[in-house]
């Protein structure tokens, strides 16, 4: 079996222990991963701490940091094929998606390369005549970045890019599921020319590796992407080190279609909104909220498209939906579909795992319009399962859209401009896509409300979030400071 290595202080090693990684397409182990135990985590944080204060990094100009990030972006682009193949092999994400996504990951590093020397301080018009006061924006320190298994290269780029642009150092914990692309990324990062320890990449299990890292006394900020339950652990862990946190969590995003929408366009967007990444996407438009006036025609076209989706091996360029990453994901989807059906929902298509080797679950549509509190509607499934709700009025559509503990993304399909604006204003979510879905860019912030977390990734603000402001007071008078205890 291929052995992958962790990357600490610029050195590759096998880690204190190893664990097997499963190929989701076959359900069999294919590679050995380095399992970071407490001592590895401590070594990684020490390497990051040392690198943070070392002059090679601490004294490096922002422009020079930007140039290193640019070189990294070029290396990612050059190695995109290798990274894409590894992500496909280890997570089951289909090759046509990993290829496109990794090419775009390079753009995130380019964007943050450009921002490195644009993170500016300020000068304050202070209310004292003999003082000059200004603000320096300084890196927050050592960042613990913790990512889930889906789209790890992408989800780490939105943390590592701004953190390094701001001058932080990072310990990145890859998910224990599908860590191969991140460990290969370490080899690419190593060629970019950053000082040793600026980025350290480890993997391991949440209970030890994740918990030790996020509660470590030498960690200053925790940037987390994953589920809300794990986020609660992260926040509790941060009670130890009082690190700041940014949390990008799950979603149950509404996809609202009004009766004046372009139906074919909306159907295509809904297909990609829920079935892209085999539904394993935090922004999946997993709650279709459809006008009763077009429900039947929309559903007919949607069902036909869903049933025509090519399900197959993730490394086949013709595959449109591949396996889920883990057996647990299949079990979750199966149980939630069964529970929703038992509660009165109607399965339109799919609903049970495919009878073939690997972790395959088919594109599923489940009509929950009579049971809007069915488990499929309220719970994030993280699989290819679309729950359908229907409405008669705009107010009802908005109420259903906001009837969730999450608030990450949303989609609105309508040709009515004023209605679109009312929906944009009314929906409680970090993203509203109007007559489109799933568009992302390094330039646009990304993040949620409620159980979808807090903080934003992407855009200038994300880089500023990796800084702290230092107030500098400089006395401009040459007059001696009088003795404070001599009465005048
Ligand atoms: P998860 O929460 O189970 O795990 C995420 C990471 O946290 C893993 O690296 C895991 O090892 C680590 N972890 C687990 N327990 C920990 C602990 N006690 N302390 C510290 N770290 C710990 O998530 P998952 O199942 O791998 O991924 C799916 C979830 O991620 C979904 O909820 C999905 O919506 C969310 N997600 C969100 C976004 C976003 O940008 N908002 C993007 C992708 C995925």
Word description of this protein:
It is built from 16 helices and 21 strands. With 488 residues, the protein is of the alpha/beta class. A seven-stranded mixed β-sheet has the order 15-16-17-14-13-18-19, sandwiched between helices. The protein starts with a strand and ends in a 13-residue tail after the last strand. The mean pLDDT is 97. Nicotinamide-adenine-dinucleotide binds next to helix 8 and helix 9.
Summed up, what is this model?
With 488 residues, the protein is of the alpha/beta class.
Topology:
Blueprint: E1 2-3, E2 6-8, E3 11-13, E4 17-23, E5 28-35, H1 38-53, H2 55-58, H3 62-78, H4 80-91, H5 95-115, E6 122-124, E7 131-139, E8 142-146, H6 152-166, E9 169-174, H7 180-191, E10 199-203, H8 206-214, E11 221-225, H9 228-241, E12 244-248, E13 254-257, H10 263-275, E14 287-291, H11 295-308, H12 327-342, E15 346-349, E16 364-367, H13 375-378, E17 385-391, H14 394-402, E18 411-413, H15 417-426, E19 433-434, E20 453-454, H16 459-464, E21 467-475
Parallel strand pairs: 1-5, 8-9, 8-11, 9-10, 11-12, 13-14, 13-18, 14-17, 16-17, 18-19
Antiparallel strand pairs: 2-3, 4-5, 6-7, 7-21, 12-20, 15-16
The structure holds nicotinamide-adenine-dinucleotide.
Mean pLDDT: 97
Structural class: alpha/beta
Question: Largest beta sheet, briefly?
Answer: 7 strands, mixed
Distance between the termini: 83 Å
The count of strands amounts to 21
Which ligands are bound? nicotinamide-adenine-dinucleotide
Low-pLDDT residue intervals, each spanning 5 or more residues = none
Name the shape in a single word: globular
Counting DSSP H or I runs of 4 or more residues, the number of helices is 16
Oligomer: single chain
Helix content: 25-40%
Q: Report the C-alpha radius of gyration, rounded.
A: 24 Å
Give the strand line-up of the largest sheet: 15-16-17-14-13-18-19
Strand content: 15-25%
